[in-house]
Design goal:
Elements (H helix, E strand, L loop, with lengths): L7 H27 L7 E5 L5 E5 L5 E5 L2 H28 L3 H4 L4 H10 L1 H11 L2 H20 L6 H6 L8 H15 L3 H14 L1 H5 L31 H5 L15 E5 L10 E9 L7 E7 L3 E7 L8 E3 L3 E7 L5 E6 L8 E4 L2 E4 L1 E7 L8 E7 L17 E6 L7 H10 L3 H8 L7 E7 L4 E6 L3 E3 L8 E2 L7 E4 L7 E3 L5 E4 L21 H11 L6 H8 L5 H14 L6 H13 L11 H29 L5 H11 L6 E2 L2 E2 H24 L8 H4 L1 E4 L7 H7 L1 E5 L19 E2 L1 E10 L4 E6 L16 H5 L4 E2 L4 H5 L3 E7 L1
Parallel strand pairs: 1-31, 3-6, 10-19, 25-27
Antiparallel strand pairs: 2-3, 2-31, 4-5, 4-22, 5-28, 6-7, 7-8, 8-9, 9-16, 10-15, 11-12, 13-14, 16-17, 17-21, 18-20, 23-24, 25-26, 28-29, 29-30
Length: 804
Amino acid sequence: MKRNKWARRVLLATAVLLVLILVGGGGFYWWFTRAGLPQVDGTVETGVSEEVEIYRDDYGVPHVLAAEGEDLFFAQGYLHAQDRLWQMDMSRRGVSGQLSEILGEEMLDTDRFSLTVGFKRAAEKSLEVISPESRDMLEAYARGVNTYLEENKDDLSPEFRLLRYQPEPWEPVDSLAISNYMAWYLGGNMETELFLSALIAHVGEDKAQELFPHYPQDAPTVVEKAEELSYEPGDVSDLTELSRLGELGGMARQVEGLGSNNWVISGEHTESGNALLANDMHLGMDHPSIWYTQHLVLKDEFNVTGAMFPGIPGIIAGFNEDIAWGLTNVGPDVQDLYEIKFDKDKPDHYHYQGELKEAEVLEKEIPVDGREEAEILEVTETHHGPVVSDVVDLDRGRALSLRWTALDPTTEADMLLDIARARNWEEFGDALENFKAPAQNFVYADKEGNIGYRANGRFPIRKEGEGLLPAPGDTDRYEWEGYVPWEEIPQLYNPPEGMIVTANHQVVDDDYPYFITHEWAAPYRALGIKHELEKREELTLEDMKEIQASFYNTQAEKLLPVILEALEGRDLGPKEDTARDLLADWQDRPVDEAELAAPLIYHFLYLAIIENTFQESLGETLYERLLHYRSLTNVVDRKLQSGESSWFQEGQLEGEEARDEIIARSFEQVVEELQEKQGSSPENWEWGEKHTITFEHDMSEIPVLARLLNRGPYPVGGSPVTPANMSFPTSEPFQVTHSAPWRYVVDVKENRGYDVLATGNSGHPFSAHYDDQLSLWLEMEHKPMPFTLEEVRQLDNRLLLKPD
């Protein structure tokens, strides 16, 4: 997780490091840079019951061969600790409210938020309900991590040396807590409820409702309503700070493009006659990658390869000998805020259904670096959930409690074992029944040529309302009545079209009997993928790779006619005429290539139109929240195409005339701005000069460390709306924050897969595998995934774990 600030001890430790390097010379530098590098060959006597073979391929990806399940997951924990221990410990501290202990009081707000929401409390509940076999898996994994810690306590990676601390032993609950954080990152709409209620208070209900979520009527769904206000919302504009804290140290979850692409193609459309699957999941682009790739072979049970989050055992996306699967985010509304009315005389009681109900008050300690005494935090739990508003409203002017599906016990750990063993569609479905949060679009393909899809997870059924605004918490009118029944969750199996595409766009049509969400991602990536698929015949894995690399911009395809019509016939200057001509020429093939000027003009213009339409009316704080609004693209694009909105005001003009004036004014501003930044010749401007990606390490706030640990900036094409997603915040600068840390494609029958991981598989800054896949990733290329035992046993590096 990114940090906005770092503790004084980091700066001090860096200064000490530099002095030691200067005084100690090359010897100290060699010792420091070699610390914590993993042993990749030879023999280690350690805590396994039978021998485990670990082969590393040319990119440092481990291939683990074991005869016993507990030995396999012990080895996986050992490997994760070898390559990603720092990342694992920071993730664990982030979700457990323990960042301040090593980074100081600058992280107190983040720790308070994590402890209040209760990621680890929820994980402790889940640990009680998973199967005994899954608990054994988690315990074996933790033993592997801890064995590595014990064996290497004096030889950990440089980050631990800089911060001068030893990580605590790993526990099974830590893995589940990290899983809960990923559910937070990928699900919910707490921020939307806060934004919309503040918007109503600021501009009134009628005008605010124009910005309520909307999905285009002509856009695709996977399986072939704006809400009326059912109560008077309270003004919670003073609590929008919760949205920032909800990012947990910088990992924004309200970003256009967050979510992923996947698709499956049946044999009738492929050259080989085999089913093909492609998946690229769009998440934060930190360094090291959020993903770790590995290959796990358990004798006589399964052979599975793919990716997983460091700190969690198993494989979350990948393929075995019989099936392949991939994930994208459904993005359902699985969070509701309830306004709680606490009693004046009994502050630990609240009003509900005409009675007083006692809240549970938990006391949590937060150790803080630089302080002798720990910070004491009181967390108040109602039957709805924790009172999250207390984090920013200590006087409790308004109290909001959070209801969230992932705060109930969940059984994702059971799915990990079952999916590795799954051999067909039925067993695949049985495995997914245990996957509750975050809700994901799973696509499926098997060696028999079948393809399928399931929108998996918990989808709340509400008595009233649809969760777009904080609801009154003193009544049961807005309670959840349960979840959508498993057998009625959307699914497809061998559809007539012979292909299934999901890209976070709308899953169901208006005839579906249950509410999922109003906040579907814009359909542009899905349309771009379909555009690429439909122009090809007899598809191959090379086609799958090319589609993952597509920068085709279907948003521009739809909006450029409106923009060019607004500029038509206007008396513009010569530079503006040239820029307009560049857009007109680009219209025939709107591809966001890094070397072109047109996408630079287009994306600058799009943001300028948003600014000139909304900023003055909303003010600085609310406008900033608008830019993080999940439905912003759908709402803005609908209004640009129709021209019908009370938000279009330009002097005495309204509606389409005002829209066209805003477009023209924005265009002139953009051309003037780009001349200052890019030079006086529009034809020489390049999108990649402003649209760049930098892979940032956690500790890159320190300039001297940034040069050592970061990689970039690199110019890139694409944008949030292209299949090859390269997302940036809805503001300048256009620096990519979210993209596809891992891309993979597979021919299921042949067990032939190709993948690429952004940067590399190692988190160690001085490892050869810290950035050895970076050039492949930037060039949109893939590498083979060794899978058969014959391929694996031919690899050069072999580490043997033997019983001690």
